[in-house]
Amino acid sequence: MMKLSFEVNGTPCDLAEIDTRTTLLDALREHLRLTGTKKGCDHGQCGACTVLVNGTRINSCLSLAVQHHGDRITTIEGLGTPGALHPMQAAFVRHDGYQCGYCTPGQICSAVAVLAEIEAGVPSHVTADLGAAPPLTNLEIRERMSGNICRCGAYSNIVDAMAEVAGVKA
Amino acid sequence: MKFEHPAGLNPIDRLTVVGRPVDRIDGPLKTTGTALYAHERHDVAPNQAYGVVVGAAIARGRVETIDVRAARAAPGVLAVVTTLDVPRLGRGRMNYAYLFGGAEIQHYHQAIAVVVAETFEQARAAAALIRADYTPEQGRFDLAAEAGHAPLHGDGDEPVHRVGDFETAFAAAPVTLDRTYTTPDQSHVMIEPHATVAVWDGDRLTLWTSNQMIAWSKKAVADILGMPAEKVRVVSPYVGGGFGGKLFVRADAVLAALGAKAAGRPVRVALTRPLVINNTTHRPATIQRIRIGAERDGRITAIAHESTSGNLPDGSPETAVAQTKLLYAGAARMIAMRLARLDLPEGNAMRAPGEAPGMMALEIAIDEMAEALGLDPVEFRIRNDTQVDPAHPGRPFSYRDLVGCLRLGAERFGWSARDPKPASVRDGRWLIGLGVAAGFRNNLLTKSSARVELDRHGVVTVSTDMTDIGTGSYTIIAQTAAEMLGVGLEKVVVRLGDSDFPASAGSGGQWGANNATAGVYAACVRLRDAVARKLGLNATDIDFADGEVMSGDRRVPLGEAAGEGLSAEDGIEYGSLAKDYQQSTFAGHFVEVAVDAHTGETRLRRMLAVCSAGRILNPKSARSQVIGAMTMGAGAALMEKLSVDTRRGFFVNHDLAGYEVPVHADIPHQEVIFLDEADPISSPMKAKGVGELGLCGVGAAIANAIYNATGVRVRDYPITLDTYLDRLPRPA
Ligand code: FES
Ligand code: FES
Q1: Do B664 and A146 make contact, defined as CB atoms within 8 angstroms?
Q2: Contact (Cβ atoms closer than 8 angstroms) between residue B701 and residue B363
Q3: Which residues contact B448 (CB under 8 A, 6 or more apart)?
Q4: Testing the interface with B: which of A156, A160, A162 to mutate, by most B Cβ within 10 A?
Q5: Distance (Å, rounded) from C-alpha B697 to C-alpha B611?
């Protein structure tokens, strides 16, 4: 058992006693009851558990909660609410970028981070010129989103939603 | 409401809300993570404990002893229940594997224990301390080895379905094809694993679970646990994908219930990802032999389709031959299935059971036959269209425009630019190919009920045990009620997935949309009558629009008409229209692939589906159903396969890294076109289903495109590059 303090969606959180085996995902879902972040595999294979840690996306099932002392975590609940959607959430609704909705929070957290990564010039596997700023193309988006599986198969619509937010043609 | 005659004009035909591509009403909840799925129901009971399921380590035999001492003594453990503590439990009507109880092991990862503890970490650690001793028995795990002596298994009265004399007609045909195709075992791998919170209140049990068929499952829980169905409540308002894998109650529900009873606390159980694959159900592999004989002008004169699959004892076959009875004309026909006994996990329905693997084979065969005849594959299909059930020519299709799908698709896709000679189009290092296949899936009718209430603010609340598994049920039900009662969508509340609500069709077999909305239609008709009676108006002479009831000059706001509130309940039931007419849905699937001339890697470049599926209730959510199905079809064609360890008897690749499904990088922009039609024979909604249609045929279209690109014909799915790399044309 350990004590853990971090910031979640802008709010300081103190967990007086957390089992050191608890993943960040389970700390969010079971201890803080922020169940917007989903558990699809618990293995780092699906991306449903994607959250932003200090602005960088990670699979929260692959990380122990106690590794995040002092970190700044953003979950889907921190992006927007049903009454005040984040632009990416609104674009997912408009483009029907989801079906069952279970991969969706992870897709949206990844989508927000992917646009920021491209903006920041972080290259990907498909970036042809590592010296230049990566272009905001369909291929770049699809490559970078490939850690988020959607078994319902909403991919084509998700890319449309992201392109709209990024202000490009998919 | 009994639906016995083709629908005439009705309020749905106004199409002011129905038929519009409105955003899903559950969208804001799903995109903000505020829709609550089964394992997230912290809200339904305090003091929930965590259960972790232990699976059997052998595929067949007996578990002799289970040592639970260390687990019981582990920190936080509240209860341990093993399969040896209870006699073998009952099973659901449509299942072949027993979920729990007794010593017999039927398949690998069958549940043998549940450990309940204060926290998930404690339960997981304690579960790892359980030691079981087994007496294994030799099992049968290899379909190819069993196929030779598998007995015939008819799906109707006769073991073999025959029309005319196939053998004679085939022998006489100037052009023939005789090929065998295989499809592998596949897993649903919905992203939400099966999960349940079980709460006992005395002898009453409530399960918050993830399930497609609430009424079936309520009954199944009662049968399995040996309790009266009235004491069981099943609740499933959000389902994180099912694809047939959640048609049935699984071990999570049963062990949450037993664990909760033993611990005296509410218990939450989710299956781990590996358990989802070997503990639950899968789509069985098939070996399919297809023979086609045709005249030189391309008319099919003889067609035979035989399929062999395997299952546990009492199990049923994968009905991969189903579509071949109906899709193409041809005077002489023979259809047969064989079923081998296997000791793998239970084979059962996965999205478009039967047609999905059947079309993967049949539509390659049709492509091969077109080539043998020197005909364009679009034209060959059109030439063999039938407007009647070939076995019963007096029985027409209710509506069938496969030809329209193929023609329009060919035009939109630029089919005429295709070079029929394989391996003739290059784009740099890529070999380019186009492929086509027909899509076909039956339209199934099943009764469905709902309750509709109207309050004094004019708010309409629909309650039904229908589920929304990503299909858009919430939205199309709201659209139906809004249209029927003349209100805006914002005035409609939809409550789904609770066995306390009237029983619906549920979600399966692409029957949900048409039947569940038809049930809501029936309840709304009754509510309209109640409003008319209340206002003393003639029900045949009133109109509901703009939130008002209108008759002649009289206009009454709906809320005022409701007074203290009105409620009506009814459902749809079907007469003989499904017998008198064959009801099916149709598509034309078009695909462009690029195959790397050096490595054989296949990339999808374009995908188009044109669908003939009756009225489309919401083109936005229906389109999503189709693109999702096309994506699953791409997986089936190119990557999905459960690998069987034929020695130890289990699916080896039991996680999402080993069982590959399409990811973003695999799927290009997808186009879907719905033909503008309505089928008045299907229901008052004049709709049919599309969720499975989009899957049926697309895999073959990809296979055919790869052939066109490379000249290499692969007849065993999935078409991974190792299956054809050595046959690729030498790169120039
Ligand atoms: S739950 Fe973390 S990647 Fe699947
Ligand atoms: S919306 Fe169901 S898995 Fe993506």
Answers
A1: yes
A2: yes
A3: B464, B466, B503, B504, B505, B515, B516, B518, B519, B571, B572
A4: A156
A5: 12
**Conformation bin of residue B3: beta by default, left when phi > 0, alpha when psi is -120 to 50:** beta
Radius of gyration, CA atoms only, chain A: 16
Whether pTM exceeds 0.95: yes
Q: B609 pLDDT exceeds 70?
A: yes
> Could you report the per-residue pLDDT of B500-559, keeping only the tens digit for each?
999 999 999 999 999 999 999 999 999 999 999 999 998 888 999 999 999 988 999 999
The residue written with tokens 């099912």 in the block is B242
Strands B61-67 and B602-612 come out as unpaired
Q: Cα B681 vs. chain centroid, distance in angstroms?
A: 23
Residues 442-501 of B with CB under 8 A from A: 469-472
Q: Is 0.90 exceeded by the ipTM?
A: yes
Overall CATH class of domain A87-166 = mainly alpha
The phi and psi torsions of A72 (rounded to 5 degrees) equal -110, 110
* A69–chain B nearest CA distance, Å: 20
Which tokens hold the place of B409? 């698709």
Q: Do residues B44 and B119 both lie within one domain?
A: yes
Q: Is the pLDDT of residue B407 over 90?
A: yes
Q: Are residues B500 and B533 in the same domain?
A: yes
pLDDT digit string, tens, across residues B195-212 = 999 999 999 999 999 999
For residues B584 and B699, membership in a common domain is answered with: yes
Domain with B27, as residue range(s), is 11-35+446-573
Instruction: Say yes or no: A169 contacts chain B, CB-CB below 8 A.
Output: no
On the CB side of A74, CA atoms within 13 Å amount to 14
Within 8 A of A26 by CB-CB distance, chain B residues are 120-121
Which pLDDT score, from 0 to 100, does residue B732 have? 65
Q: Specify whether B692 is catalytic.
A: yes
Choose one of B214, B244, B278: the last residue of a domain.
B278
What are the structural domain ranges in chain A?
2-79, 87-166
- Structural domains of chain B, count: 3
**B592 belongs to a structural domain:** yes
What is chain B's length? 732
Query: Phi, psi at residue B257, to the nearest 5°?
Result: -65, -45
Q: How far is B355 from chain A (nearest CA, A)?
A: 19
Q: Which residue of A has its CA nearest to B666?
A: A142
pLDDT digits (tens, 9 = 90+) for B623-662: 999 999 999 999 999 999 999 999 999 999 999 999 999 9
pLDDT at residue B155, rounded to an integer = 73
Q: Pick the last residue of a domain from B278, B309, B338.
A: B278
CB B160 within 8 A of CB B335: yes
- The residues pairing with B163 across neighbouring beta strands, listed in sequence order, are B333
The angle formed by the CA atoms of residues B564, B567 and B570, to the nearest 5 degrees, is 170
Q: How many CB atoms lie within 10 A of CB B276?
A: 29
Q: Residue B154 — pLDDT band, cuts 50, 70, 90?
A: confident
Co-location of B70 and B198 in the same domain:
yes
Tokens matching residue A59: 């699979």
AA identity, residue B291: R
Burial profile B128-157: b = 16 or more Cβ within 10 angstroms, e = fewer: ebbebebeeeebbbbbeebeeebeebebee
pLDDT at B15 over 90: yes
Q: Dihedral sign, CA of A86, A91, A93, A99?
A: negative
Are B92 and B276 a contacting pair, CB within 8 Å? no
Q: Where are the alpha helices (DSSP H) in B14-97?
A: 27-32, 69-73
B611 & B477 share domain: no
B344 falls within a domain: no
> Rounded to whole angstroms, how far apart are CA atoms B434 and A48?
34
* Residues B434 and B494 both lie in one domain: no
Q: Among all chains, which residue has been given the structure tokens 């071949």?
A: B324
Q: A2-79 belongs to which CATH class?
A: alpha beta
B61 located within any domain? yes
